[in-house]
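Lecture 7 notes. Example A: sequence first, then its structure tokens.
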Amino acid sequence: MKRFLALDGFRGLCALFVVIFHTHVLNSFAKHDFFRNSYLFVEFFFVLSGFVLYHTYGQKEFELKRFKRFFISRTFRLFPLHLVMLLVFILLEVAKWFAQKKGIMFNNAAFTGDYAPSQILPNLFLLQSWLPGANPLSYNYVSWSISVEYYMYIIFAFIMFWIPKKKEYLFGTLSILAFIALFFHSDVLKQEALRGLSCFFAGCLCYLVYLRISKIIISQIIFDLLELISIAAIIIVIISNFENKGICISLLFCLTVIIFAFDRGIVSRLLKSNPISYLGKLSYSIYIIHLAVLLVILSTAMIASKVSGRNFTPMVTENNIPVRVITTGSAIWDNLLVFVILGGIIIISNFTYKVFELKGIALGKRVLERMEAKSGLPELKSESQKV
């Protein structure tokens, strides 16, 4: 089955862009308008997930045994590292509580606000972006998108299992209704869920478009131009300010995914290079672990400020919101610090990818093998590793 190598690399770069968005280093390139708006690349993740999932499963008969395989493989793909990081954030709150007892205060008291104990259970089951009383941006708050994605997998599987003949119509209906709800700022579901539903099922439809045009003969120069134009359009939209920018960038990502699925243009050749391709493999780890790393760095800088008497973590206002940033006082050192942070996150991600992601996938395969051995089902094919 075809592997979309350029899109894998694209996903890795987008994960880094989200990291830089959360990296508040004052006199650095992280404060450029492009990175201040790079939270929008989460929409790319949703579109790409829908596209690749339909590529892997959309043309297959989704009988009960495949449904079970799908559910178990998806669960063991996402949950192990998610649960590890939730535990890390709980332990960080415990450490903050002990620090408070020693008279060391941080931005907020331990286990309050976004880190209230009441938010642990919704996070545990990845329900924080769906339950009315839950806070999507609690604990490891980037996991709000994993919460959305996991249950979109379940919706996808139920449609494939129960109503396969109408799947394209249902995917289109879900996507369009979610986009309409976003446009009118509806509260029918949480905004986080609507962002995912609109983009994920649009991504499924994008794969159908890709199939339709994949046999058309298009010259190399056309793909070069299309890729360059799509990248330029993404940059322009990201740095611009206008209403419903999220919807606009989502639709642009749909076109971009279709273009880069061909792996043909000049930008694709760069994205398929070994370093960027490896970032694609690490993208989930990069995304899910980076907030904890940034929080530890910020806390260390705050302690250094108290010890040295020099303020390395001033409060600044961004978009009328007070934000604590890190600064050395020098643009050169601040920019260098961002590169050091990114390098450290990649190194840690390489560890979590091998220790938690790959072992979680392997554990899921063993569970499936035992389940199928007991039931006498045919041996599992490695579909989970293709998504």
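Example B, a different protein, same format:
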Amino acid sequence: MRALLLFAMFLLVYLSGNIILQRASLEYSPVILNTILFSSTTFLLVFLFRKYADEKSIVSLGFPFSARNAIMGSWSAIVVLGLVITIFKITSVSSFDHFSWPGINWYAGLLIMLVVGISEETLFRGYLLNNLMQSFDKWRALGFSAMMFAFMHIGNPNITAIAALNILLAGGVLGCNYIFTKNLWFGILFHFTWNFLLGPVLGYNVSGVGISSLMAPELRGSEVFTGGAFGPEGSVIVTVLLSALLVVIPMLYRPRN
């Protein structure tokens, strides 16, 4: 009930804030404003619920640093994204036109990806999945939290059915380590590494959103294969790789548990 109540309150505050920002017509990047709204709403509500409803510390959500989980998360993202780009290159559906320095905006993109990674993992894995596991078995809790994660991205630009499925699978991958370790650093580093390399470095759209980048890719062929305007996260290649990762991660922990 605490998880559902927090999620409902988050939706109310976040969506209301978005409406206000759109009507205010502020002369700032919509991506930056959205990131500030999302992260501030997340940290405020999670802090209040964790302190006064759960009567536990924020740190207990899974913040004690774990180098093992951080390295696993970062390298998992690098391997999966590396396979995606390699397949793109082999099949000639994507090429890079040029390399350029976008200036100060690049650092803004880097910071956005870091804030998004920390805030989304704090909300969806640290609080929602954590609390759901107190009422359901870990796999059902993982499924519910992944659906909440996917629901929050339904309004992203250029989203497709495949993209929505991939975000659902990504929610499963990001939470799969957590249900065994109760540590957030796998999800934070996977999330940040994936978004940072995909957007600010390689120049693809990240969940439908364009970011200032070092490289400028050119996509050719079917959107089912390339992901189209949503970015590679809308590709069936990512569907296959994330599904495989959902099988591999539990296998790493099964003998130990």
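Note on Example B: Residues 104-132 form the longest helix (29 residues). The CA atoms of residues 63 and 180 lie 15 Å apart.
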